């Protein structure tokens, strides 16, 4: 039996929209709008969805950087939302983050050694900080001699390695990777993903791995969740996800993955969704995807589909008219 490390229940993060000199609240951006999911020890949960669907906001609530509007977050079975400062300090040790942008997430005036040393000093985990930093640098594939260099002296991929060294410094259990390779060249992306995979094996890490396209997480996630306008549309085991995707939105995302075989790639039919992504300040009624869904019926405009478990037990989908096996995009 896999053991649950983190569970998110009915989580909502609504940002108030304030207008006028009196800064009156005129509405809410529903960035995360009722998300429930769990993460098991040692696994990689991939989260995908287009820009603005609430991925980073979800990450920040898990890290305790944002206080959610409602819902709950359990870490090792305990609700963390009412933790006091001391409990939060301990928790932060176990949950770390790797950010999307390796350029802005590192202080440009700090030497890399000091950047990686910061969490060690804050938690006083070791007397020999310098030695531990050098160990960490080696672990992520950076020469320890670079200790005194500044972030701008490194390439994007190397900077992301610095961010990863900082994230693993305290031996956390969970790392939330928020689009860690999106800002990197394709050739460098694979190296950073390989590093993250090696570290996971070596250190027994659990990952929530956020990406805006599916190709990045295809080979690394154990389970995949698809978000759209602050909601999870489909969540399943990796195999089942790629072979048996049932949500029309997932199907559209899958159709966008380039195929390695040039003949198949030429024949690949891309599903282009109609219209623009609606604003999370004014999400559509019923199923939030209905305005762009090729399968939408009147029923979908008035009723909200819940994430339901399908026959095989490993697959959950929030759709009234899920795609049958025969119609699916084959990858
Ligand atoms: N601090 C904030 N205040 C107001 N709106 C925000 C804030 N952070 C994010 N948003 C809005 O919430 C929505 C989701 O954003 P985000 O979580 O960054 O999405 P993603 O990471 O999937 O691109 C967007 O519409 C964004 O503009
Ligand atoms: Mg983001």
From TrEMBL:
GO terms for molecular function: ATP binding; ATP hydrolysis activity. One of its GO terms (biological process) is peptide transport. This is Dipeptide ABC transporter ATP-binding protein. Belongs to the ABC transporter superfamily. CDD domains: ABC_NikE_OppD_transporters. Residues 6-254 form the ABC transporter domain. Keywords: ATP-binding, Nucleotide-binding, Transport. It comes from Psychrobacillus lasiicapitis. It holds the Pfam family oligo_HPY.
């Amino acid at each position: 039996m896999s053991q649950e490390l983190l569970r998110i229940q009915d989580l909502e993060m609504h940002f108030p929209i304030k207008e006028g000199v009196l800064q009156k609240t005129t509405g809410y951006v529903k960035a995360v709008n009722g998300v429930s999911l769990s993460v098991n020890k040692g696994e990689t949960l991939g989260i995908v969805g287009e820009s603005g669907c609430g991925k980073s906001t979800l990450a920040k609530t898990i890290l305790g950087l944002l206080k959610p509007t409602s819902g709950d977050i359990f870490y090792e079975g305990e609700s963390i939302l009412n933790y006091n400062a001391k409990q939060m300090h301990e928790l932060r040790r176990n949950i770390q983050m790797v950010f999307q942008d390796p350029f802005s997430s590192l202080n440009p005036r700090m030497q890399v050694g000091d950047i990686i040393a910061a969490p060690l000093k804050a938690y006083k985990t070791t007397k020999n900080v310098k030695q531990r930093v050098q160990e960490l640098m080696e672990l992520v594939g950076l020469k320890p001699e670079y200790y005194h260099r500044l972030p701008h002296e490194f390439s994007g991929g190397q900077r992301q390695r610095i961010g990863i060294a900082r994230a693993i410094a305290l031996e956390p259990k969970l790392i939330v990777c928020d689009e860690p390779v999106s800002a990197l060249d394709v050739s460098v992306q694979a190296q950073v993903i390989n590093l993250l995979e090696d570290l996971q094996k070596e250190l027994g890490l659990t990952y929530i791995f956020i990406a805006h396209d599916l190709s990045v997480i295809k080979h690394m996630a154990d389970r995949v969740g698809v978000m759209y306008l602050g909601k999870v549309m489909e969540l399943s085991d990796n195999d089942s996800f790629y072979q048996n995707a049932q949500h029309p939105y997932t199907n559209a995302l899958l159709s966008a993955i380039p195929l390695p075989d040039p003949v198949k790639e030429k024949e690949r039919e891309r599903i282009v969704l109609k219209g623009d992504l609606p604003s999370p300040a004014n999400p559509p009624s019923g199923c939030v995807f209905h305005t762009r869904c090729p399968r939408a019926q009147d029923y979908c405009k008035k009723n909200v589909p819940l994430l339901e478990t399908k026959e095989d037990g490993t697959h959950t989908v929030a759709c009234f008219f899920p795609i049958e096996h025969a119609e699916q995009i084959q990858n």
